Each structure stands twice: as structure tokens, then as C-alpha cells.
Amino acid sequence: MQVIETLAEGLKREIKVVIPAKDMQDKMNERLADVKDKVRINGFRPGKVPAAHLKKVYGKSIMADLVNEIVREQPAAILSSRGEKSATQPEIAMTEDKDEADKILAAEQDFEFTLSYEVLPPIELKSVKGIKVTREVIDISDDEVNEQVLKVAESARAYETKTGKAANGDRITMDYVGKVDGEAFEGGTDQGAELVLGSGRFIPGFEDQLVGVKAGAEKTITVTFPADYPAKNLAGKEATFDVSVKEVAAPADVEINDELASKLGIESADRLKEIVRGQIESQYGSLTRQKLKRQILDQLDEMYKFETPNSLVDAEYNGIWSQVNNDLAQSGKTFEDEDTTEEKAREEYKTLAERRVRLGLVLSEIGEKAGVEVSEDEMQRAIYDQLRQYPGQEKQILEFFRSQPGAAASIRAPIFEEKVIDHLLTEIDVTDKKVTKEELLAEEEGEAKAETKKAAPKKKAAAKAEATDAGEGEEAAPKKKAAPKKKAADESAE
């Protein structure tokens, strides 16, 4: 087998592979010898089929199998022998001429194919001792804990049926049918819907028109859907809702005590406060971690400047750009609304894609040298977390992870990245700084503005590019529902 490099330009490589016809013929003869005693052909005793007849019957299919094996196995072996790692799966090109293909399968012509790929750039790791970061921490006050506990208590507040008119703060139970141009629209009908007046859960103007109604009342409400309403068929349109009020209930007083905790499935009010404090600590801890990670990534970005594989950058950019356009389409906005142009936005996101790929390669190299690994237990826990998000679809999701190697890589990547960050935190200079809640949130809001519209990165299947600049992503804002009522899932999330 001849391996000839035909292109070495930057990170791009092209390799021509030539396997002489004689070698292919020899391999075919070996396979034919193996099957000689196994095949059954009418007119011949087992093991007595002439080689020429075997070749006539099985030669072409055996050669096709050989070709498939070679193009499946040799690229990895060739790269390994060259000491190279491909950024993505190498592209393989073979002849498309039928006559030439037939000659190859008949072992009458050399088998040739080319490999085209980009190599991962060599990365010489630098000392991280000079990296200095500030970890912002806050003390959580009892007042903040009590404030959050009160919100929990209000969400579990009891309501008592009243005979008078509904006021803000009262809960109404109702049936309604929404119509546009006299026709009921999908998602605009509900029965036994509960709404606390003044909660702002329904579209503007809906709740205000229910103030003063009594149980048993029938009322038609007229509202206009906002121009930026997610459901395009309803955005900006006037709608009517035929409402039948079933019950008006007044809120009971809220008391934070063991009885309340018991209703929530918690043993005591003190334990409830502990849980709430832990949740607040976790939320602030995530914020602190995100900002700490961004500091590390920013400094690594300054330390490492090297050419990145275009194939990885393009894939990263395409993922970001697709998300950006989806966000704009859902919001009904344009690039001009975001004080930019499409051309400038493309430039910014291309730069972001390059940064993410570069940092991904650096973090992967750091993790590899440090022996960072993702255990099977960690993978199982992460997959289980995914399953919990899609109840009833567990079987399909598990099958997806089994059949798609890239899916498992997308789960492993963020775990690996966080473990590399944990490793770096043991190596770099970390200074804790006490800040107030307002300082932590205010600074984060400033940073978030700088990262506006930067979509979360797509994970790469390539091992070297698994770690990504996740610190630059942002969570999508919750969207309004097509119907005026939020569904139970939204209510529980609140």
C-alpha cells in the first residue's frame, strides 16, 4: 500500500492511498480459500468447487467487502502512523467511473482513494500559575431566606370560597373559549382554569376585566394579543373570550409554620428554611462559578493564539448562527432592532466560534495531560437527568444515546469541561471577595449585555473539541403560551 501526501497547507492534508491490484487479488484469494469448504454450490461436492468458479460467483462481493473494510479501517491507521489527529472525520473520495469501479472489483486495476482532512494543531501547554481570578461570594441574610420562604408559602396559599365580587388577589375558577373573528382558535379553550387576579399570568387586559365578577357570571372579554406574541397567527389580533365564572375564592392568611411545611412534604418550618437557604446558595454559587469560569477562559484566550481547524469553526458557527436566527424569528425582531447588521453579527459570531473551538482544544489538552476522565457513573447520572426531563420517552432517549455516538459525546463534553475547570482551580491563584447580592447581580447583568444573543455552543464529536466555551452562553427567556393560560408545567416552574 502506497501512502502519498498530496497536500500539506496549514492544517489541511490530502493523502492519496494506492493498493496495487495484485495485493487486492491476493486478499481476495485468501478470502476465497476461507469460504471454499463452507459454501454449497449445486453440482459440486463440498470443498471441491474450482477456484475459478468460486471467483466468478463470489469474487465481486468479496472485493466489495474488502474495499469497504479498507476505507473503514485504513484512515485511522494512516493518521496514527503519521502521528496526526483529524479534527473531523476524514472525507474519502473514490472513483465514480463505473468501468474503473468494475475493474477494481475484478482486481484488474489498482484501488485508489484519497483522504482529505484537517489536523488538530499541536498545542504546547503553558504554565497556568500566572492566572489570577477573583471568586465573588456573598453572605445570605436571614431576611432574604424569609422572603423566599414567604414566596413559597404564598404559592401554597389556601383559598376560601366567597360570595362577593372578585378583587385583585382573589382566585377565580372558570371555563373559557377564545375566538378570533368569531372562530375558536387552538389552545384558547380551557375548563376549570384557575387564575389569581393581578398575577399577570394572562395576556394584558384579560385579568382586569374580571375584577368585580361573581360566581355564576357569564362575561365576554375582549383583548388584543401583543404584536410580538410568539404564536404568529394570534400576534396583534383582537380576540374575545367567553368566560363562565365557576367560583370566586379569597386568599387565606399565610403563616410560616410546621403546618405549612407539612403541606409541602417537609418535616418542619426550620427544615423548610434550610432547604430554601440551600437553594439560594446554589443559585448564587452557579452565578459565582459562571463568572469565575469566564475569567479563566478569558485569560486562556489571551495565552493561546493558534490556527483553528476551519471544519470545527464552521460547524460551531453554523450552530450559533442557526440559534441566533431562531431566536430572532421567535421574537419577531431583526438585526437592526439589536443595533447591529447581519454582516457585523456574522463577523462577531465567527470570532466567537473561533474562540470556542480554540478554548475547547486547549481545555481538552489540559484535561488529557492532567488525566481528567469522565466516569461511567457520571455519564449514567447525566443521562438519567436527561431522562427526567422527558417523562414517558425514556426508552426512545436511551435508544438514541446507544445508537448515536455523538449524543453520548454531547453529554460527556460539559462534564469533562467542568472537571477541567475544577482541576485548574487547584492550580491557579484564586482570591475570594465578599460582595453584596446587588453587586453580584449588577455586574452579571453588565456582562450578560456584552454577551447578548450569543447562543450556547453545539458540542463536537471530536474528542479534542468536546470542551466548549459554555461560559459565554445564555439561557433563553421563558416564552408566552398561545393560550392566555399558562400550563401546569409553567406554574410549577414558577
UniProtKB/TrEMBL annotation:
Region (Disordered): 441-494
Gene3D superfamilies for the chain: 3.10.50.40, Trigger factor ribosome-binding domain (3.30.70.1050), Trigger factor, C-terminal domain (1.10.3120.10)
Reaction catalysed by this enzyme: [protein]-peptidylproline (omega=180) = [protein]-peptidylproline (omega=0)
EC number: 5.2.1.8
Gene Ontology molecular function, alphabetical: peptidyl-prolyl cis-trans isomerase activity
Subcellular compartments: Cytoplasm
Domain PPIase FKBP-type: 169-251
Top-level taxon: Bacteria
Record InterPro entries: PPIase_dom_sf (IPR046357), PPIase_FKBP_dom (IPR001179), Trig_fac (IPR005215), Trigger_fac_C (IPR008880), Trigger_fac_C_sf (IPR037041), Trigger_fac_ribosome-bd_bac (IPR008881), Trigger_fac_ribosome-bd_sf (IPR036611), Trigger_fact/SurA_dom_sf (IPR027304)
Keywords: Cell cycle, Cell division, Chaperone, Cytoplasm, Isomerase, Rotamase
UniProt free text on domains: Consists of 3 domains; the N-terminus binds the ribosome, the middle domain has PPIase activity, while the C-terminus has intrinsic chaperone activity on its own.
Protein's job: Involved in protein export. Acts as a chaperone by maintaining the newly synthesized protein in an open conformation. Functions as a peptidyl-prolyl cis-trans isomerase.
Family: Belongs to the FKBP-type PPIase family. Tig subfamily.
Protein name (record): Trigger factor
Source species of the chain: Rhizobium indicum
